[in-house]
Amino acid sequence: MAIPRLRATANEHERMVHPNQIVYNKMEHVVRQMLDSEIGVPIKTVKSFLSKVPSVFTGADLISWLIKYIAEKEGDTKKWLDKDKEEKEIAEQDALHIAHLIASHGYLFQIDDHVLTVKNDGTFYRFQTPYFWPSNCWEPENTDYGTMQDQDYAVYLCKRTMQNKAHLELEDFEAENLAKLQKMFSRKWEFVFMQAEAQYKVDKKRDRLERQILDSQERAFWDVHRPVPGCVNTTEVDFRKLSRSGRPKYQHQTLNATASGSCSPYSTSAAAAHAAQSQPSTSNGGPSTSTAPPAPSTSSSSSGSFRNNYPHKPGLRRCTQVQDTLKQEIQQLNSRLAKNVLKTSKVIENYIGFYEHRRLFDPHIVMLGSQQDPFQSHTNPWTYDNVDLWTHDKITGDISTRRLQLWEDSFEELLSDNIGRDTLQKFLDKEYSGENLRFWWEVQKLRKCSCRMVPVLVTEIYNEFIDTNATSPVNVDCKVMEITEENLKNPNRWSFDEAADHIFCLMKNDSYQRFLRSDIYKDLLAQSRKKVNHLLDVVDRAESFEEGFETATRQQQIALVLISGRTAGKCIGPVPPRSARLPSIARRPYSNLPTVISSW
Q1: Using one digit for the tens of pLDDT, what is the confidence trace for 214-245?
Q2: Which CATH number applies to 142-230?
Q3: For 198, left (φ over 0), alpha (ψ -120 to 50), or beta?
Q4: What local confidence, expressed as pLDDT, does residue 77 receive?
């Protein structure tokens, strides 16, 4: 995935943001020791017939140096000749594995082939210039025409086509990439071509050996960042590393405070790499390890520190420095000291009160439609095959007592309900303050809209509610207006959060209380209670009728038992239980009792 590219003038705090920076630091520590003129890998210029190969070393020399380096780190004082065959094979495998990792990340490369591996033989390799190390060359963010590195890659491929050399001809996949980039940068392709032509003219003025080294280093850089299809791309970053939940986040005030002024855009061309080197190649042809950052540009502050490119809310960067983590912890502890401490008994009492107040609205505790339900709602549609609970208000146009009670319970419940929000909107329109709720709702939609709709909605909200000539201006104070104007300099989906929170508090403390005392809400509540009382009367009459029917049935059973006892000439025993009665007789009305007796 694309992550912010590191500037050449970035400090150590900004470099540590990359999730692979620890790996890069360890590799670069080893590479710097390899580049040491006294204890490092022997770098030489190989002479052949009518040609020279400058600044190279063999794979065998590299593996030998790594074996010695690993032995010193592990404290192995045993000489190489004294080791047995198995120990030598293990040491060679470890050294070869480390060499593969270093080569795959672009710290060294093979001059004859473009495979990012190392062989333990006489193959020639060359170190990459520190300017092209992966810790300095990150994938940039997207621009209107792709990425800045895509533009640099297009310049590099164009420059390759201008050189009539067999070893610089484009491969098949590079030709395809050039065609895609030409289509991507169609509107600015002339600028890309002019930039490539200017770099080509500068390269022609350099010494032949120096140009040969820079060409190979630049090509090795693109072999790492634009590898051959099918090869592993070591510059890819795992998304899980970028979103570790265990690290505290930076606050946006800290980001703005630590961000420095404007910076120059980073270039990956060979000309920039040559300009970044403070010294030319050493006497033995090895590249210089010291670098000089390019001169800062006078561009506008919009191209400033990449910290400013992060939105203020949410998705802030994670703390990767120890001092930042400690500052974050101190800030959290200070905020805890400012809070009021409650006893556990008081907290439990509050929880119990909240439970007793909200249990009536929980269908898992109080079953809908049961005798314990004070609102006499319809049955639970998830338990019974009945969706009247969802469709009753829409079909009849009435509002249930349960819903009205939820509105009175909290302002958040009122806003989360579509019917409640519409009812509140009608009330606010009558009081000529409906723009507050419309503004708050538009801000909520802005937070959840697609990225391409963010600039459109921000402009619409500003023109309708915030601007001095707005059609429906909202009532916000000067301080909130200043914060909103500052946020609109970098418009995003959270630009109006402060104003929306201010309007929300106004509606909750003022408009919501007046809504509960208004005639609109009282009429709805009276109508709903009247229907509930009517329903309760119907239920009571049905229960009384059922009790009377059971009493008559009981008397009928007693009469039947008496008649049967006299007919058989036996003593009358105890009255049989209710379960022993005859279902066919129990269901008959009690006007048929003489007919039943005569049949006996």
Answers
A1: 888 888 888 888 888 877 778 777 666 665 54
A2: 1.10.1240.60
A3: alpha
A4: 64
